[in-house]
Each structure stands twice: as structure tokens, then as C-alpha cells.
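Review form for a predicted model. The reviewer records the input and the model, then writes brief findings.
Reviewer: anonymous (R2)
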Amino acid sequence: MKISVYTKTGPKAATSYYRLYQYIDKMDIEIKKRKMISDSIYDKIMPIYTKPIYLKFGIFIYVYFRVLIQLLKDLYDRPDIIILSRRFINRVLPFSYKLIVNHLIKNGTKLIWDFDDEIIETKEVTQKGFDYLAHKSEKIIVASPVHLNMIPSSCLKKTIILPTTDGSMYNCFCEKINMIRLNEYDNKFKIIWVGTSISLPFVLDICKYIESAAKYFSGSRQFILTIICNEPLEYSPTNFKLRNIKWSRDIALKELLENHIGIMPLPDEIKTKAKGGFKLIQYLSVGLPVIGSAIGINKSIIDKSVGYAIDADKTDSWHSAFISLANDKQKWEKMSLNAYSKWNKNYSYETNLNIWQSIINYD
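Model under review:
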């Protein structure tokens, strides 16, 4: 079996790695990795939304021809399956791409399409391009039940919900890690957020609640907020300590194991409702209780056994949630164990791997 995998770039991109590479790299099949942007250029241009318009245009031309050449290579040496992550190219679906994809499908290639976000609202694809991919795909893989609302009704039968999870961390959670966290709990309360710079404003919005909770424990507990991101959080705290650490997969793992809770604040918007809740699932995988906005899939990930889901119209509840988890060691420990148990039951890496293997090997 021959498979071509079209992604934005290599494993440095979270979507590429967590949605696809961590599974396909475990499979004994011939895989050609078709990257929209090479790893070296990706390092130089990301985040691209901060770049001037002339550079964005240049990147678009580069990507158009790069992906076109990759599709032509597949036309010459036809794969059995094409796995597409989100889109071939941002904003448009060129006619030249459609001609090649149509020919490949007509001659037996199966298209599997995976996406984990509101890619229409964010203008990664047009509605017309989205519908084309939905109808041409043999299988559609989505991260959240919310994504089903985006898919044409005639395509729902071939759609599979597969939450984004992390296969690199769960084996690290153990009694030793739990004891280290408990030993620090009386003196420190450590909060972590992992994400990309585009979501930093959401964290900034709740810093006032971390301030007020930290002030409540002033003199007895030190509150520490750790930001793992490609850019720093620009904020000068009064009552807590802020740590900005540049993201890498190894650093994220190390820091997640050393904290007490994970947070995922979001505004109540169309594009945020369709997020896959990956941060929360990642936190659960290492036994971290969570506090997050009660939006989209977050509402099903966060239950009372593992943390607090904060309603959009009750943002003051962030303050009480921080105090509740920082003020009761037994509650925190119980939620920590529940978090890992819920991850293992509902978001297991092995379960996802088995599903991907069955998708690729279906008749």
C-alpha cells in the first residue's frame, strides 16, 4: 500500500504531528510526506499572520507550485490513499488541483480528509472548496461533534469523530510525579497554558482572576503561571509569577509534569466553538485537573470529576475555580487521578491508533 500525506509542514506543526504523524509513523506502510511548506521555511515564516502582505503573497506562490508538483508526482506514481490535513492550500482550491484529484480518485485513489478546526470561518477554505472535499472524500475525520454541523448531510455517514490526543505524555504520569506535585502544593500553586500566540489574548483576559486568587492566598502560597508558546505573554503580574517559555515538544512535556492545573480560556465565538479541545485532553493525559471555558467540545471534556467548565456569561467563576483547586489538597489529588482515568477511558492514544489503522486498511 502506498499513501501520500498532505500536511502544512512536518512534525513541528502541532496539527500535523498530533492528528497524523504520531499514528502513521507507527504503521508499516510506504508513506510519502507531502509538506505544503518545508520545515526550514516554516521555521522562518511562522507565525505567518504577522508577516507583511508581499511576503504572504510570495509564500502563496511558493506553496501553489510546491503542492502542484507534489500532486503531479502522485499522478505519475499513483498512491492507494491520499490523507489530507485540513486543506491543500489556504483560501482557494485551484482548478489545476481539482483536475488531478479527480483523475486520481477516478483511477482508484481514496481521499481521507482530516480537520480539527472551524476552517471555513478562519478562511482556510471557502465553502465551495469545503463541500468539494467533503463529497470527494472516502472518509472524513473530525476532532469534535461540533464539526458535524459543518459537513453536508449526505456526507455524515462517512464521517468519524476522532478527538485529538497526545501519545507522548501519558506514560510519564505516575505516583512519583503525583508526589512531587503534592509536596509543592502547600507552598506553590502552578498553573500552565500551552498554545500558539494567536490564543494569547484569551489568557490575557483571565489574568485578573489569577491575580485575585493569588491575592487571596497572599503570604501563604505562591501562584505561578507558566506559558508554553512560540511567543511570550506580554503581562506584568502583581500577585503571581509569570514564566514565559518557548514551545518545544520536550519542554512542554517537562513543564506539564511539573504543574498543578491546566487552563483553556476561550471567547464565545463561532471559530472557538469548533476547537477540538486538545489542550484539555493533553492536560488530562498527565493527570492535571483543568479549568476551561464551557464552549464546544470543552463542555464534554470537562466534568465535575476533573475540573471546572466556566460559562461565558459567568467569567467571575474563574476566580472561585482557582481558589477551590488551590485550597483543597484532597480535592486536587482526586481530580488529578480522575483526569488521567478519563483520558485513558475516552481519549486513549492506542484507541486512536487502532481507529487510524482500521481506516487505512478498510476494504
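Findings: The chain has a mean pLDDT of 94.
Further findings: The two ends are 12 Å apart (CA to CA).
Recommendation: see findings above.
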